[in-house]
Write a structure and sequence with these properties.
binds 5-O-phosphono-beta-D-ribofuranosylamine, alpha/beta, three-stranded antiparallel beta sheet, 217 residues
Length: 217
């Protein structure tokens, strides 16, 4: 079965592109049925349009408050009938009602090994702490910021001399393998959300699966 994905974006869209590529290669049994951005003119929208994907702009600045934006987004999502709602560089917090409505079908990718470094500035904080391993996580979205159960993670080494830019680029590269791999586990039903936790093959995941990335630049 081909799963239906709605992808929410705010900016560059490189994860969106990686997901589209994985679908095209048959590595992800899914179809992107909608791309929704919270602002006009983003690179993500151009990338999607170039590939003939239906895109929509739901301009957050034209909605009086978060609740109004969330209601409009919920209506768009219902119209698209996705199996999964995929946040890919979507820079808005969703309100508790919307999260509750899509709980278990709403996932995000975050540039750290959660629960380390939720929120912004993850690479800067990792470098300041002198960690030697950093990475990215795909997690179910719950009302807590970057706090939902983790589906899958990928590690990268922190190398001597790394600055924020170098580390961000290394993490982003593994994100492009991680997100499609995690989504495939979800669309196949191998990993699912139950009772506030991630389950894999019917067992509660004690620790998130780590994606083996052959070679990290
Ligand atoms: C990624 O680093 C992702 O982890 C974070 O936002 C960034 C999005 O990049 N949530 P892109 O728009 O997919 O290129």
């Amino acid at each position: 079965m081909t799963a239906r994905l709605a992808v929410l974006v705010s900016g560059r869209g490189s994860n969106l592109e990686a997901i589209l590529d994985a679908c095209a290669r048959g590595e992800l049994s899914a179809e992107v049925v909608a791309v929704i951005a919270d602002r006009p003119g983003t690179r993500a929208l151009k990338r999607a349009e170039a590939r003939g994907i239906a895109v929509e702009v739901l301009d957050a600045s034209r909605h009086p408050d978060r609740a109004a934006f969330d209601r409009a987004l919920d209506a768009r999502l219902h119209a698209a009938r996705p199996d999964l709602v995929v946040l890919a560089g979507f820079m808005r917090m969703l309100g508790p009602e919307l999260v509750a409505a899509w709980l278990g079908r709403l996932v995000n990718i975050h540039p750290s090994l959660l629960p380390a470094y939720p929120g912004l500035g993850t690479h800067r904080r990792a470098l300041a702490d002198g960690v030697t391993v950093h990475g990215a996580s795909v997690h179910f979205v719950t009302p807590e910021l970057d706090g939902g159960p983790v589906v899958m993670q990928a590690e990268v080494p922190v190398r001597p001399g790394d600055d924020e830019r170098a580390l961000a680029a290394r993490v982003l590269e593994v994100e492009h393998a991680l997100y499609p791999a995690a989504l495939q586990r979800l669309v196949s039903g191998q990993v699912a959300f139950r009772d506030g936790a991630a389950y894999c093959d019917g067992r509660r995941l004690a620790r998130p699966e780590r994606l083996r990335v052959a070679e990290v630049a």
